[in-house]
Amino acid sequence: MTIQVRNLCKAFGDFVALDDVSLEVPGGELVALLGPSGSGKTTLLRIIAGLEPADRGAIFFQGEDATSTPVRERQVGFVFQHYALFRHMSVFENVAFGLRVRPKAARPSEAEIRDTVMGLLELVQLDVLARRRPSELSGGQRQRVALARALAVKPRVLLLDEPFGALDAKVRKELRRWLRRLHEEAHVTSVLVTHDQEEALEVSDRVVIMNDGRVEQSGTPEEVYDHPATPFVYGFLGDVNLFHGRVGGGRVSIGRGTLDAPEWAGAEEQAAVVYVRTHDVELAASPAGAASLEAVVRRVRAYGPLVRVELDLVEGGRSIEAHIPRARCERLALARGRRLFVSPVNPRIFAEPA
Amino acid sequence: MRHKSRSVLPGFGVSLGITCTYLSLMVLLPLATVFTRSAELSWPEFWSTVTSPRVVASFRVTFGASLAAALVNSVFGFLVAWVLVRYRFAGRRVLDAMVDLPFALPTAVAGIALTTLYAANGWVGKYLQPLGIKVSYTWLGITVALIFIGLPFVVRTVQPVLDDLELEVEEAAASLGARRWQTFTRVVLPSVAPALLTGFALAFARAIGEYGSVVFIAGNMPMRTEIVPLLIITKLEQYDYAGATAVAVVMLVASFSLLLTINLLQRAARRRVEA
Amino acid sequence: MATIAITRPAGAAPPAIRRATGESPAVRRVLTGLALAFLGLTLVLPLVLVLHEALAKGFAAYLAAIREPDALSAARLTLLIAGVAVPVNLVFGVAAAWCIAKFEFRGKSLLITLIDLPFAVSPVISGMIFVLLFGAHGWFGAWLADHDVRIVFAVPGMVLATTFVTSPLIARELIPLMQEQGSDQEEAAIVLGARGWQTFWRVTLPNIKWGLLYGLILCNARAMGEFGAVSVVSGHIRGETNTLPLHVEILYNEYSFAASFAVASLLTLLALVTLALKTAVEWQQRRQALEGAETSVPTERIAA
């Protein structure tokens, strides 16, 4: 089922949580709403769920206006950050709740409820814990119960509000993969709110990046990562170095180094900000062309497959970070105080906001 | 009151409706009668009623004994809270539960028990008698009853604050060279002070209105051991409704100012904690 | 390079920490002794005295005192008053806690203050206001006299005064509890299709049941034990408008001390049960809080 959000606005007092937000979630896809805290992503999710009314704008489920449909009738599954499990009920009863509260005519028989619940508990691999109370479960297990509970009512849409936010890093990674597999089996249209870029890029079919109540960019993980539309997106996804320079006439100059900037060929010279990913910084013992900037190694952290090198630019005094393969690091014999030449690759240039 | 719809939960209108209706009919309307009835008196009449010697004497007894009791409770209530939070000893949990006894025990029962205890031949009174200390039927007796009534207010406001006090702060003070007593007076006491002040005000507010536990032990001698609530009852029994309302207005104004002070104190304390 | 000397108090780490933040054993003992002596004198001794005096004339006299017709009628009236005041305040308390804890609206803190107001009013004045309203010279006095309805110096007035005095108790118990629990679980229930009542009965109520139970018991204890307010509006007619606390007073003033303390011991028992229940409730809540806190228990790996 597709979800369309049109021109949504929402303010809490003076705080503008959503400022004219529009987006589309294609049926069967898993879309991540990604942004820093306060960017409005959770508010958007709660409005889609019907937990919060919008000030303006509309929501369509499968082309049908659902803006004023009460939450109970929207048939959404909602997974809360802090699980919101019913503490006084067993795992089984938690999952069965949505079926049990149906009006008599629509309520499944006891046997059907049993089958549905146990089927779901098997799916989330908690069937052996059906009689436990939520308090007897770990955080990861609780969140899987919450997911099973949301799925029990056969929702048309699954909405997840930072579902793994309260878990530790390792459990989070496992649950993330598991959620992706679950989605591939069930194919329920899903919206996931997260502030963790890695999570968003790994799990989702599409990523919607939000900032200050607005959508900055949306697209597949590859699109948003490789072609960030705005400086914000560039800075938010992945580690990045930032240079101030001047751009114009097809070239950008950073200090004494210059780089080609063909897309700025016709532009007048102006101040610019140049973004370069940390793994797009090449290090060399001697200057390699016009782009090279001289720098001094300040710190080398050599764990994992990539070596993280912090450098101070000789000119301008800025420090930058480069992630280079281990073998390259050994060849350069990097150590504190070593003088090197830095050349940015794949720079992304934005005009400096006046 | 406008509902800033931030919740999908039902029942806001119904529950707010019940609450406001109930409060208006059951609390506000009856309390308003005190003020409207007292308005039937002219200002000079009102003034002469509340400044007549017997009324002034009862104010002095009530406010004096309440102040003394609240002060005693501030000291011992703090001590009890400290010991209950910081030390472990047999029977601690039972004592902790017992602190609420004055909340739960009917005041009349407390009144007759304390009177019997402190009478000249009572369990405590017989030891005080030879020392020339008379408690029952004196100002001292009133204070004793008010100490009993006010104790839980001080303990229960100070206790959670002491509980939340980070040991690290005291450890930091000690690591910086403070002696235990210095740590207490410069670090612990200032953090607990707002709660202690609130507890004091709560105990005082409760004491000035107290009737049941005091009336047995007080002796009720006009001009000497007559408390304000008793004076109000006496005036009501003499059908002096105007006089009773006039005195009641003074008491209500005092109580409400105290309530306001307590609210402000608690708000200030909360702001300090959050800052 | 300058060296910074870190001086530590002598001794290994744990005892040093204890020494830094604790008092010496002697001081501890003195403070504990003082606190115990104070509590013993103010709380324990009166309690023991009530039970001792109640049985001063033997168990037979004790039974006779509490089985006497006037005592029984006082007990019946006490039960009747509590039987009205407690349910009424239950409805009010739940409604007030629901709108205050689950919704945001302007004037909320004013509302909370108004709920607390009866606490600030002397019991005597709490009784008096109903005399001013319904007494012979009161606002509704003439109308009531015309229709031959007696409210003050009769049972209805005693019920009203008791309800007024005990009105904040259940609300006060529930508001912080429900505020702390938030609305997550209720929202989850609504998303899953539950209706308002279903949400309240199946989700909210089970979560607040312990606090609610304590509120009920405390409200009940205070309703049964209310003295000052009831005293003002009671007709003080034995067998008709006497509650247990008023009966205690009458017996005491007649120098029937043993009988007076016998009846008082019943009320004391009620108070002790209330305290025991409160302790149990707090224990339950602490357990729940602890359960809620432990979220980072290591999970077993999810099989691929």
**Tally of contiguous helical segments of chain A:** 9
Order of SSEs of chain C: HHHHHHHHHHHHH
Please report the total strand number of chain C as a whole number.
0
Instruction: Kindly report how far apart the N and C termini of chain A lie.
Output: 43 Å
Multimeric state: heterotrimer
Structural features, described:
The complex is a heterotrimer of chains A (about 350), B (about 280) and C (about 300). Helix content of chain A is about 25%, strand content about 35%. Chain A is built from 9 helices and 20 strands. The radius of gyration of chain A is 25 Å and the shape is elongated. The two termini of chain A are about 45 Å apart. Chain B has one domain (about 45-275): MetI-like fold (Orthogonal Bundle), CATH 1.10.3720.10. Chain B starts with 11 loop residues before the first helix and ends with a helix. Chain C is mainly α. Chain C has 2 domains: about 15-55; about 60-290, Orthogonal Bundle (MetI-like fold), CATH 1.10.3720. The model of chain C is unreliable at about 1-20 and about 295-304 (pLDDT under 50). Classes of the chains: A alpha+beta (about 350), B mainly alpha (about 280), C mainly alpha (about 300). Chains in contact: A-B, A-C, B-C. At the B-C interface, helix 1, helix 3, helix 4, helix 5 and helix 6 of B face helix 1, helix 2, helix 4, helix 5 and helix 6 of C.
Short structural summary:
Chain B has 275 residues and is mainly α. In chain B, 76% of the residues lie in helices and 0% in strands. In chain B, helix 3 (53-86) runs parallel beside helix 8, helix 3 crosses helix 10 (180-209) and helix 12 packs antiparallel against helix 13.
How are the SSEs placed, and which strands pair?
The complex is a heterotrimer of chains A (354), B (275) and C (304).
Chain A (H helix, E strand, L loop, with lengths): L2 E10 L2 E11 L4 E5 L6 H9 L6 E6 L2 E2 L10 E4 L11 H10 L9 H14 L15 H14 L4 E5 L7 H18 L2 E6 L2 H7 L2 E6 L2 E6 L1 H6 L4 H6 L3 E9 L2 E4 L2 E4 L9 E8 L3 E4 L8 E9 L4 E8 L5 E7 H7 L6 E6 L3 E4 L3
Parallel strand pairs in A: 3-8, 3-9, 6-7, 7-8
Antiparallel strand pairs in A: 1-2, 1-4, 4-5, 9-10, 11-12, 11-14, 12-13, 14-20, 15-19, 16-17, 16-19, 17-18
Chain B lengths: L11 H27 L4 H8 L2 H34 L5 H7 L2 H4 L2 H12 L6 H4 L10 H26 L2 H9 L4 H30 L2 H4 L12 H10 L3 H34 L1
Helix pairs in contact in B: 1-13, 3-8, 3-10, 6-8, 8-10, 9-10, 10-13, 12-13
Chain C lengths: L12 H9 L3 H30 L3 H10 L1 H34 L5 H13 L2 H12 L6 H6 L8 H27 L2 H8 L4 H30 L2 H6 L10 H10 L3 H37 L11
Helix pairs in contact in C: 2-13, 3-13, 4-8, 4-10, 5-8, 6-8, 8-10, 9-10, 10-13, 12-13
